[in-house]
Design brief:
The chain is of the alpha/beta class. It has 11 helices and 14 strands. The strands form 4 sheets. The chain has a 7-stranded mixed β-sheet with strand order 2-3-1-4-5-6-10, with helices on both faces. It starts with a helix and ends in a 13-residue tail after the last strand.
Length: 353
């Protein structure tokens, strides 16, 4: 099992170099193959309108590299809502979701609610939406009102596809902060104080540095921090790493452990060893550092008090090793901690002269 978990970590790290974009568009003609899997421009369905073809091309630009693929779901122009597409993406896993006409179609709030529900369930999808203050780590609030690519001007709504592709094309070794958009020739002009205020408010914005247009900082829309969601949750890269680890450990445990081993202390130790192998690989690749994984003594103690006829005094008198070996029926209580590694973004350099 250790080998399986280590191999899975390596495969995930390779896959995370290129995310998958899910895109919802409305068109007069729904392609014969719908949804369509698009890897390169030649895969774009011919039936699509020129406007929708352009949106797909924007997403394909990417950042360090192009997205792994775009999963394009086409709705009929007269579709009243995005329900069919969202139901599909609830099952078909994508990393980033974008909808080039979400604001026009008054579907932004529906998407926000859907993303929150999906993330609470287990589908760690994230969406790029125009000028949407969602206060959630799964929503990127893209808030640059207008940009130009050559002579073509794009609103925040019509440029979300480009941002989703950029985020999907950002490897796990870097972040979207200061990512350069070579194709953008002009963007909305703002003072540094205005940009800083927008970034602090959870808005992803572009700015012109005097030579080129680039992303101000890779932040999501989260504003309300709590014990469960601290300031690191505001960073796109950190949330990406958390989502990746969550998805892997859930699937690996389901496929290789749950329902396959008796719930003995020895087998619990086997699971801990396998997860440890996975986390060690993540640490070697700079995703996390300083991690721990072990049986959750406090949770086991509470369980045996409530379910095994053990008194509070008896439980408190047990050693940690004794508690770990207590039988907990079908339950496995684990506790882990890790520091998610961010990238360099703020450099203070004091030069004495």
């Amino acid at each position: 099992m250790n080998i399986i978990f280590t191999a899975a970590a390596r495969n995930t790290i390779r896959r995370s170099e290129r995310g998958v974009v899910g895109m919802i568009v409305k068109d007069a003609k729904v392609p014969a193959t719908n949804p369509a899997m698009i890897y390169k421009e030649k895969d774009i369905p011919e039936e699509l309108s020129d406007a929708n073809k352009e949106q797909v091309k924007l997403a394909l630009v990417g950042n360090d590299t192009a997205p792994a693929k775009i999963v394009l779901y086409v709705l009929s122009s007269d579709a009243e809502n995005y329900e069919a597409a969202l139901n599909y993406f609830a099952v078909k896993k994508v990393t980033w979701l974008c909808c080039p006409t979400a604001k026009t179609d008054t579907q932004t709030e529906t998407i926000v609610t859907w993303v929150k529900d999906q993330r609470d369930e287990r589908n760690k999808v994230k969406a790029v939406l125009p000028e949407t203050e969602a206060d959630n780590e799964g929503i990127i609030n893209y808030a640059t009102a207008s940009v130009k690519v050559g002579e073509k001007e794009y609103t925040a709504e019509s440029f979300c596809s480009r941002i989703a592709g950029l985020l999907a094309g950002t490897s796990n070794k870097s972040s979207a902060t200061y990512a350069i958009l070579d194709d953008v020739t002009e963007c909305e002009k703002k003072k540094k104080t205005e940009l800083d205020a927008e970034i602090d408010a959870g808005k992803l914005v572009l700015y012109y540095d005097g030579e080129k247009v680039k992303v101000g900082r890779g932040v999501n829309s989260l504003q309300t921090v709590s014990k469960g969601k601290g300031n690191p949750w505001k960073k796109i890269r950190v949330v990406e790493s958390m989502d990746m680890i969550h998805d892997d450990l859930v699937l690996l445990s389901e496929d290789n452990y749950i329902g396959k081993y008796p719930n003995t202390y020895a087998n619990k130790c086997l699971l801990i060893s396998a997860i440890n192998s996975y986390l060690a690989e993540m640490e070697r690749n700079g995703i996390i550092e300083g991690y721990t994984i072990d049986l959750d003594v406090d949770a086991i103690k509470e369980y045996i008090i409530k379910n095994k006829g053990v008194t509070r005094d008896e439980a408190e008198a047990m050693s940690e090793a004794e508690i770990k070996k207590q039988y907990t029926d079908e339950k496995v209580f684990l506790a882990a901690s890790a520091t998610l590694v961010d990238v360099m973004e703020d450099i203070d350099l004091n030069i004495a002269v």
